[in-house]
Specification:
Elements (H helix, E strand, L loop, with lengths): L1 H21 L10 H19 L9
Helix pairs in contact: 1-2
Length: 60
């Protein structure tokens, strides 16, 4: 049951990241790059907690 809730939360967070990327073309709804980076960081941390793996992607 808890795993199902975690998977739903993961899917919701992933959807937010995808939606944030999709709305950047609309200036009224666009998130700042910092907000998007924070959401991606949270998503990576959540995935690491869920799977036990953490992939460190250095900034360009």
């Amino acid at each position: 049951m808890a795993l199902n809730a975690l998977a739903c939360d993961y899917a919701r967070m992933l959807g937010q990241v995808v939606a944030a990327v999709g709305t950047t073309v609309n200036a009224m709804e666009a998130l700042s790059l910092q907000d998007m980076a924070q959401r991606v960081d949270r998503l990576v941390a959540f995935e690491a907690a869920l799977t036990g793996y953490y992939i460190d992607i250095p900034p360009e």
